[in-house]
Design brief:
Number of helices: 4
Number of strands: 0
Number of domains: 2
Helix content: 55-70%
Low-confidence stretches: none
Structural class: mainly alpha
Distance between the termini: 43 Å
Order of helices and strands: HHHH
Shape: extended
Mean pLDDT: 84
Radius of gyration: 16 Å
Largest sheet: none
Length: 76
């Protein structure tokens, strides 16, 4: 069974830099721009079970994101 904890890691930079400095640094090192081709490269190396797990997690994040968006946009 695959669990999220099997894949969690702590970025050592997060232990060194403050919140704002860390965000600036990580954005420069790893911009938050999804690149489908890079994701596909990783997915090709995954087993069918790993792909199913990743897809299920992505769908969970989508559901949570939609709930957050609705909560914020409908707030009165």
């Amino acid at each position: 069974m695959i669990t999220v904890h099997d894949y969690m890691a702590i970025d050592p930079l997060a232990l060194i830099f403050s919140g704002d400095a860390y965000r600036i640094l990580t954005e420069k090192l790893h911009p938050h721009v999804p690149k489908v081709s890079e994701i596909q490269e990783v997915v090709r190396a995954m087993t069918a079970e790993e792909r199913s797990f990743a897809l299920a997690r992505a769908r969970i994040f989508i559901a949570h994101s939609k709930a957050i968006e609705e909560a914020i946009t409908t707030l009165k």
